[in-house]
Amino acid sequence: MLDYADELREKEGLTVREAALHSAKRRMRPIFLTSAAASMGVIPMILGGSPLWSPMGSVVFFGTIVSMVLTVTILPVAYWLIFSRADRKSINH
What we know:
The protein contains four helices and no strands.
């Protein structure tokens, strides 16, 4: 997502905010599908009821879901906040 945002800024000349939004929109589907596949893959471990595998499956399931949400929401905002300062500095100089 970050590489694509950098590419949009360099090749398309987009602002930091526009590049963050476009890269988040474009990469949302692959991120969601990968996270969903990993989460659904551990459901048999959770339903198996094993004292070892069931808790580990729960951690993997909820960890991938939470990381997906954070990746799709927080990462573009953080990119925008961090690089908007650099963008303003390059405009002023």
